Amino acid sequence: MDFFVMSQNKKIYDYPTHSHEMWEILLNLEGSGTAVIGEQTYEFRPGTIFCIRPGIPHSKKSRKGFIDGSVLIRDFCFKSEPEDVLVFQDDERRTFDSLFRVAFEYPLNPSTDVYAERFLRCVVDAMQNLLSHWKQATLLNPEVIRAQKLLADHVAERQFEIHQVAESSAYSPNHFRKLFREQTGCSLLQYYQKLKVQLAKQLLLQNKSIMSVTEIASKCGFDDPYYFSRVFKKVEGVSPMQFYHESSQTTAREAKDGYTYYLFDLDGTLTDPGEGITNSVMYALRKYGIGVTDRTTLYRFIGPPLVESFMNFYDFPKEQALEAVEYYREYFRDRGIFENRPYDGIAEELADLKAHGKTVALATSKPEEFAVRILKHFDLYPYFDFVAGATMDGSRSRKADVIRYALESLGVEDKSKVLMVGDREQDVLGAAANQIKCAGVLYGYGDYEELSRAGADYIIAKPQELLRL
Questions:
Q1: 347-358 pLDDT, tens per residue?
Q2: Where exactly does CATH 2.60.120.280 map onto the chain?
Q3: Which one of 86, 93, 287, 468 has the lowest number of neighbouring Cβ atoms within 10 Å?
Q4: What is the pLDDT confidence band of residue 208, given thresholds at 50, 70 and 90?
Q5: 248 pLDDT tier (thresholds 50, 70, 90)
Q6: What is the predicted pLDDT for the residue at 250?
Q7: CA 69, 70, 76 angle in degrees (round to 5)?
Q8: CA-CA distance, 207 to 249, in Å (whole number)?
């Protein structure tokens, strides 16, 4: 057989590093913890699904234990993808979990019963179809993005009316609420409360010695500190005071002492490149007879390496993706590069960091040549001690590699003094791969769910919050 379905069906606490000769679809059935796959660390929870390329070493740990299930498959639907691992999260109905249990609990032996083998093949095919559907359904609805930014901008306000967010969308309020839940996994109110609790956690770690819980509740937009505590416990599982006391001394000390090195992403963090990048992508796609009328569908190109984006989003083989990047650069080199603008408050925040004696560097997947030109064009270059970017030949393009290059070039010895700042999961995962912390920003092209799922240590709404970390 070219596939196998298995599970130890018992709680495991530390599964040692191993690899397989086949693709593995690894479904976490119960428990939460961390998985190390290749050189990257991922968090998992019930319903997390890892699709791991053959030969890639991986391990899992959980303090309270976990149960997972595995499908080993030789001819996998994502075998042409460039990633060594793809990560998904099961839907609310636990559809993937149900398919796995049907296969795992099937009573007949597929090795001896041809009909059992055919049946299980259909179930495994259904699993692959579901994963393919989820991968293709990654387009972010611009109305939902607008709502997320609106909620982030008003996170500390007392009188903000959440219902106005739904009523001001291009859809009917009920349909918009449905779209919002499908894209974020929670309701408008739940999302807004998560933002408030994230702000409260930062205030607790930074100001608990000089602010009461009542004052922190007020700064997060709560009139009633008791209601604030109930919301906090609902989101975090512990009360505000429990969270404060259970936070490690290391985290508290870092919050007090601050960071010495700040590594910034460029696109979506320092500048808004939406118009220039999407125009450049549309220019490249037209070379292949592909027309795009809604530029918001191309926002997913902002952040990840371009070669991977053309391969993932338009099924280009690698040779064609490399060619598409060259077409992209034809437009971007002289026009798209300046169809761009710095975010409000960025120059002031960079100046503030330098005034406090911080070392500031750029760590971007954009080619270094373009990054320097952008910084100089917007008069941001004098604030930077070092610029680390991708190489034109693609030999250094992944965010983890760029960050590693920056750290080595800066001669960093104590990684606990380094903070990466970015707006997408690539920034968070790249920081984790280099054992440094990351602050995710909500004013760029990522959102709270993406950043928190990736494991951001902080999530901030405005650049002015950086020095408080």
A1: 988 988 888 889
A2: 3-136
A3: 93
A4: low
A5: very low
A6: 45
A7: 145
A8: 15
Q: What are phi and psi of 333, to 5 degrees?
A: -55, -40
Q: Could you give phi then psi for residue 82, rounded to 5 degrees?
A: -80, -20
Q: Is 153 a catalytic residue?
A: no
Nearest CA to 171 out of 137, 139, 142, 191 is that of 142
Q: Residue for token digits 């032996």?
A: 109
Count Cβ atoms below 10 Å from residue 461 Cβ, excluding itself.
20
CA distances from 399 to 143, 227, 360, 374 (A): 28, 41, 17, 19
Q: Which structure tokens are listed for 341?
A: 């603008």
Domain with CATH 1.10.10.60 in the chain: 142-255
CATH 3.40.50.1000 range(s) for the chain read 258-270+340-468
Place of tokens 């083998």: 117
Catalytic choice (90, 97, 265, 447): 265
Mean pLDDT of the residues in the chain: 87
- CATH class entry, domain 258-270+340-468: alpha beta
Superfamily for domain range 142-255: Homeodomain-like (1.10.10.60)
Is residue 405 within 8 Å of residue 396, measured between CB atoms?
yes
In 3D space, the residue among 300, 409, 425, 297 whose CA is nearest the CA of residue 359 turns out to be 409
Please list, in sequence order, all residues whose beta carbon lies within 8 angstroms of the beta carbon of residue 114, skipping any fewer than 6 positions away: none
The matching CATH number, chosen from 3.40.50.300, 1.10.150.240, 2.40.50.100, 1.25.40.10, for 274-338 is 1.10.150.240
Domain 3-136 matching CATH 2.170.120.12: the answer reads no
How far apart (Å, rounded) are the C-alpha atoms in residues 97 and 157?
40
